[in-house]
């Protein structure tokens, strides 16, 4: 049986990933092992949406008495597959932002449109390979759309496919009450929906991401507000780092 993360504790802690964890999708894409998944789940909770499975645990309390304990569980393999999908999106977006067209090679044949991302230049096993954007026999409309596009747009078309695949069925769009008025609202289904929505908004807003020198969380900074000296995600982390350096200087002076 595949390993699963079980949500047995019904205690809930609220947090706002779009405010306090602006680079959470970036951290999610960095998950590579079972230990990484468990640590992330313990901190931020289950992914939810289409990844949770109902599990029934039969407990034998006495030889003549049993009880049923239902709970939700998520396969770790699915967590890692979703993390790899997010890592591909992050890597491809960074390559597109770098504007190095030598990384990409396009090839259009009668049957398929292919985009090759060179292994030697990227060094990322999650993204470097030949990707089929569309097969003419399977998706003729998409194949025609891609063949009419300029070659420089092909990496963005691949990114579009990956992001839409990640967000598909995991967000609800409708009306919501905001400041006493109705407005369009997009609500994610579970944490996995929030992560993909966060990644989509970051790409749309051309947001850059840095890793905090103190807490190691990822945080976003818009291109127009980016500063070379921006090293910490918050004033609290900046002060913690300052006190840590100050304490280290005092200990060095004593020795």
Describe the structure.
Helix content is 40%, strand content 27%. The protein folds into two domains: 4-172 and 184-205, no CATH class; 207-255, no CATH class. The model has no long low-confidence stretch (mean pLDDT 80). The chain is globular, with a radius of gyration of 23 Å. With 255 residues, the protein is an alpha+beta fold.
Q: How many discrete structural domains?
A: 2
Query: Which runs of at least 5 residues are low in confidence (pLDDT < 50)?
Result: none
Helix content: 40-55%
Rg calculated over all Cα atoms: 23 Å
Q: So how many helices? A: 8
- Class by helix and strand content? alpha+beta
Q: How far from one another are the termini?
A: 56 Å
Q: What is the makeup of the main sheet?
A: 3 strands, antiparallel
Strand order of the largest sheet: 1-3-2
What percent strand?
25-35%
Shape: globular
Overall pLDDT level:
80
Order of helices and strands: EHHEEHEEHEHHEEHEEH
Number of strands: 10
Concise account of the structure shown:
The protein is of the alpha+beta class.
Topology:
Elements: E1 4-7, H1 24-29, H2 34-44, E2 53-62, E3 65-75, H3 76-98, E4 104-108, E5 112-117, H4 119-122, E6 130-135, H5 140-148, H6 154-167, E7 171-178, E8 181-188, H7 190-204, E9 207-211, E10 218-222, H8 235-254
Antiparallel strand pairs: 1-3, 2-3, 4-5, 5-6, 7-8, 9-10
Helix pairs in contact: 3-6
Provide tags for this entry.
255 residues, alpha+beta, three-stranded antiparallel β-sheet, 10 strands, globular
């Amino acid at each position: 049986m595949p390993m699963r993360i079980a949500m047995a504790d019904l205690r809930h802690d609220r947090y706002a990933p779009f405010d306090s964890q602006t680079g959470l999708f970036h951290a999610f894409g960095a998950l590579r092992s079972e230990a990484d998944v468990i640590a992330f789940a313990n901190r931020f909770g289950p992914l939810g949406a289409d990844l949770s499975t109902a599990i029934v645990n039969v407990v034998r309390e006495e030889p003549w008495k049993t009880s049923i304990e239902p709970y939700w569980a998520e396969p770790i393999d699915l967590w890692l597959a979703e993390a790899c999908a997010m890592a591909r999106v992050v890597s491809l977006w960074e390559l597109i932002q770098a504007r190095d067209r030598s990384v990409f090679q396009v090839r259009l044949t009668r049957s398929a449109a292919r985009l090759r991302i060179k292994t030697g230049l990227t060094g990322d096993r999650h993204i470097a390979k030949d990707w089929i954007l569309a097969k003419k026999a399977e998706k003729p409309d998409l194949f025609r759309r891609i063949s009419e596009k300029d070659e420089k747009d092909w990496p963005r078309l691949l990114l579009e496919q990956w992001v839409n695949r990640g967000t598909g069925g995991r967000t609800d769009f409708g009306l919501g009450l905001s400041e006493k008025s109705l407005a369009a609202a997009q609500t994610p289904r579970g944490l996995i929906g929030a992560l993909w929505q966060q990644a989509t908004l970051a790409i749309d807003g051309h947001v850059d991401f840095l890793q905090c020198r103190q807490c190691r969380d990822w945080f976003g900074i818009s291109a127009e507000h980016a500063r070379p000296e921006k090293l910490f995600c918050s004033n609290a982390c900046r002060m913690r780092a300052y006190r840590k350096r100050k304490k280290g200087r005092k200990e060095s002076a004593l020795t």
